[in-house]
């Protein structure tokens, strides 16, 4: 066998050039070493993913398929519980007064549902992948009440996320930017603290995108990622409207947690408690699992 040394010299040269170009550590490794805040966000995400997985494993594969109304509401409940667990793992959140924490959770709840659904569905072209492993097609006939939201999630968020090749680090950072909103209702007394938390996330996010990301040479990448937030907010408002209508007309079962987080205007008896006096969230909220009609949460 004759070796083409000229070919291998060219290949070696190209390999060296590529090595020089990616001389920096991998995104995750660099984040661990240089951006503790991003690592904290990744750890929080991993923790709630593990919690979700421990519940999903109780779901039979036979029950997975096209989502029903029960699947959608169960998935929303699960995701709100996971949102609380995620927030509790953020140091800056845990230091805030209870009233501020509740304000942030309420303000972010619908956005959280939208962002999680969009990123989780990045491998799909025309459907939303729910937490209970069911699919909500954007033109679903089984759940027509949320078609508008599902279609907007796919077209305005999932498709752009896929086009941008958005990774988990960027997703976690973007979620935290949306979460720490200093102008959220009920956050007035902690405006400076919440704003500082958001600025710290933005700083770490910018450093990652500009200096660490494999796509750091893409022009205006940070801006393109941040521009996903306006549609997130718009779709979240549509989702809240759908929940309000579903509750008003009895189209779906809206549990207490969903009502308190997504429809707070209806329950202002106590900013930190539910209508029955129980805390809005406990140290370890549980995920309700259906064992018959609906897939497990």
Task: Give me some keywords for this one.
mainly alpha, single chain, 2 strands, 297 residues, 12 helices, disordered C terminus, Retinoid X Receptor, two-stranded antiparallel ribbon, 2% strand, 60% helix
Question: Average pLDDT, to the nearest integer?
Answer: 81
End-to-end Cα distance, whole Å, is: 60 Å
Low-pLDDT segments: 5-33, 282-297
Strand order of the largest sheet: 1-2
Which CATH architecture? Orthogonal Bundle
Q: Main sheet?
A: 2 strands, antiparallel
Q: Per the principal axes of the C-alpha atoms, what is the gross shape? A: globular
The first-level CATH class is given as Mainly Alpha
What sequence of helices (H) and strands (E) makes up the elements? Answer: HHHHHHEEHHHHHH
Given the helix and strand composition, which structural class is it? Answer: mainly alpha
Number of domains: 1
- C-alpha Rg (nearest Å): 21 Å
| CATH homologous superfamily annotation | Retinoid X Receptor
Strand content: under 5%
Estimated helix fraction: 55-70%
According to CATH, the fold-level topology is: Retinoid X Receptor
E-strand count:
2
Q: Please, how many helices?
A: 12
Region (Disordered): 269-297
Domain NR LBD: 33-265
Pfam families: Hormone_recep
Protein name: NR LBD domain-containing protein
């Amino acid at each position: 066998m004759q070796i083409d040394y000229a070919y291998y010299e060219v290949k070696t040269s190209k390999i060296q050039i590529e090595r020089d170009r990616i001389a920096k550590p991998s995104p995750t490794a660099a984040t661990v070493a240089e951006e503790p805040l991003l690592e904290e966000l990744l750890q929080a995400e991993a923790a709630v993913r593990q919690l979700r997985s421990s519940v999903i494993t109780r779901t039979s594969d036979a029950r997975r398929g096209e989502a029903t109304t029960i699947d959608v509401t169960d998935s929303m409940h699960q995701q709100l519980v996971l949102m609380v667990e995620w927030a509790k793992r953020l140091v800056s959140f845990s230091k805030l007064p209870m009233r501020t924490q509740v304000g942030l959770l309420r303000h972010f709840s619908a956005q959280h549902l939208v962002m999680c659904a969009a990123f989780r569905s990045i491998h799909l072209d025309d459907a939303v992948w729910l937490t209970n492993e069911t699919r909500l097609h954007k033109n679903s006939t089984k759940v027509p009440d949320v078609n508008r939201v599902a279609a907007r999630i796919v077209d305005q968020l999932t498709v752009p996320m896929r086009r941008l090749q958005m990774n988990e680090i960027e997703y976690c950072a973007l979620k935290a930017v949306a979460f720490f909103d200093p102008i959220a209702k009920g956050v007035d007394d902690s405006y400076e603290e919440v704003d500082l938390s958001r600025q710290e996330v933005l700083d770490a996010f910018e450093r990652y995108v500009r200096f660490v990301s494999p796509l750091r040479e893409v022009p205006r990448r940070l801006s393109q990622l941040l521009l996903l937030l306006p549609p997130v907010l718009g779709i979240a408002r549509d989702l809240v409207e759908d929940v309000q209508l579903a509750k008003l007309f009895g189209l779906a079962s809206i549990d207490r947690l969903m009502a308190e987080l997504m429809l707070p205007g209806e329950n202002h008896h106590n900013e930190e408690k539910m209508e029955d006096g129980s805390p809005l969230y406990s140290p370890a909220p549980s995920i309700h699992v259906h064992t018959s009609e609906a897939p497990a949460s």
